[in-house]
Amino acid sequence: MSETTLFICKSCHRSSAEVPTNEPCDGAILLEKISNLCENHESLMELKIKSVGCLWACSRGCVVAVSSLKKPTWLFVDIKADETIDENTTALLEFTQLYINSRKGNVPWEKVPEVLQSAIFAQIPSVLNHENLD
Ligand code: FES
Fold first, then answer.
1. What's the structural domain count of the chain?
2. Range of weakest confidence among 53-57, 100-104, 127-131
3. pTM above 0.85, yes or no
């Protein structure tokens, strides 16, 4: 089983144009919430969580990517860190578990948690698994 990484942009902020001084960005809030949830989630212990400065979809924050060496990378946008954060983080971890359990990283549309179905921005084939490109 190859290692799975959840990349979370710590710089995204969508609740206002500017981040108020001394307040964390929405991305940082999302990162902390997911990190805390994973610590108590035995089946996700092998999941690596990595904060990144930007995932290049800044106007669609918060932005998160799920990636593994031999599987496609899924990029999610518009993940809110507001009062719906519990629902969004639960959905992201549910999707990640399906991804980890899948042999090729393909999660059927109907199994993607509903809150994430409109948040899928891209599915990028693994560069190590070129048969996915056919
Ligand atoms: S600031 Fe988050 S994607 Fe660029």
1. 1
2. 127-131
3. yes
Number of H helices, E strands in the chain: 3, 5
In a domain, 103, yes or no: yes
Residue 24 CA: distances (Å) to CA of 30, 52, 60: 10, 15, 18
Give, using CA atoms, the residue closest to atom 2 of ligand 1: 12
Q: Is residue 134 part of a domain?
A: no
Ligand 1 atom closest to Cα of residue 27: 2
Q: Residue 12's domain is classified under what CATH number?
A: 3.40.30.10
Ligand 1 midpoint to CA 18 (Å): 13
- Extended beta strands in 26-76, E state: 48-52, 64-68, 71-76
DSSP state, 87? H
